[in-house]
Every structure is written in structure tokens, then in C-alpha cells.
Hints:
Strand content: 25-35%
Number of helices: 8
Bound molecules: adenosine-5'-diphosphate
Largest sheet: 6 strands, mixed
Number of strands: 10
Amino acid sequence: xxxxxxxxxxxxxxxxxxxxxxxxxxxxxxxxxxxxxxxxxxxxxxxxxxxxxxxxxxxxxxxxxxxxxxxxxxxxxxxxxxxxxxxxxxxxxxxxxxxxxxxxxxxxxxxxxxxxxxxxxxxxxxxxxxxxxxxxxxxxxxxxxxxxxxxxxxxxxxxxxxxxxxxxxxxxxxxxxxxxxxxxxxxxxxxxxxxxxxxxxxxxxxxxxxxxxxxxxxxxxxxx
Length: 224
Ligand code: ADP
């Protein structure tokens, strides 16, 4: 249906608050995210990981509401099928080979593993174990695996951590590739570094002490 094709994927956060014990770390947050590359930037301790874990359904929504398209995060089973989450550290699959990992991940949505094995140049390393890869290459494999789940929303927690300048440059290319080849995905990645905000980024959300202090495009971010 034409109407379906024109409907954009959208994540809506409404009046979200979240506390660890007594102290509120996210306060009355309201935010809409659309398809494209979205960055969550803020100093350490500003609430980025907390928000990403809530969006990944690891932490439950207690106050406020979140919807992915029209589906509430209260419908956990449905939401989990629509998202992919890449945590900051990822060592559990260290002892399996790249092609085994991609085979395993793509199997969830019975998609074609070759499509994902051919992303970001990882095919060249398909017979290597994940632990034998550089941090940058490992990130590429994990992100390709996340894409193979065909999610509407991909959450990347500090993907540049542990990467050198070259590794960051590789991440930029990954975002550009996703933007062109998987334009209907909503990407949200977090960082505390301004140099992780690339030209291809659509929206920047800056957080401080659990509150949004900026939400806009790169041009207005530079002018702020
Ligand atoms: P960021 O990812 O921006 O560094 P976090 O979301 O990790 O920020 O942390 C936000 C705040 O919540 C910090 O003050 C942190 O100390 C606190 N915090 C994070 N995780 C926990 C936890 N499990 N228990 C209590 N406080 C926590």
C-alpha cells in the first residue's frame, strides 16, 4: 500500500523519568526521533547509557511513555522484535568466527547472511574469530549483525569507545553506508566526544544531568 510506504518510522518518548534509588537521572524527557542518524551527546554521567538501556528495554519504563511507531513499550514482546542494541563492551562471542556470528544473527529474521557478510568489508575476515579482530573490525561485525535483525531502531552505546582516529573514521563510513542503504532505520548512537559528530548526522541531541539541552541539526548545533 502506498500509504504504508510513506509512513516513516518514528520513536516517541513522552515525559520519561527514570531514577536509580531516590535520585532522578532522567527527568521529564520528551523526544521524537526519526529515520536517519541521530547522536546522543553529553558528558560522562549525563544519562546517555541509562536512556539507551531504557530504549533497549533492559530498564523498564516506570514514568512516562515510549512508542516505536504506534507500538507502546508496554508491549515488550512486539517492541523487542523491532530493535537492535549494541552495548559498549561486547565480548561474549569472542570465540566464534565472523561468518558463524553473521549466520547466527541473520537466522533470527531468516535473511540472507551473505548480504550482511558483505557489509563494511568484513567478508575478508569471515574465518577469523571475533577475538582476533581489531576493535574497529569487531564493531563492524557487530553492527552488521545488528542490521541483519532488520530492526526499525538500532541503539549503539558509545560505539567509538576503544577506537583510535582511524577506527572513528571507519564508524563514519558505516553511518554513511547505513544512511544510503538502510534509510528507514532509526539509528541512535551515544558519545561524549564532539569529533564523533559527523557531517552525515541528521539530528544531535545533547543531554546534561538527564535533561535535553539541545535538539537539532548539525548547522544549528554549530551555531548554538
Ligand atoms: P552516561 O552514559 O552519560 O555516562 P549514565 O547513564 O551511565 O551516564 O549515568 C547517569 C547517572 O546515573 C550517573 O550519575 C551514574 O552515576 C548513575 N548511574 C548509572 N548507573 C547506575 C546504577 N546502576 N545505579 C545507580 N546509579 C547509576
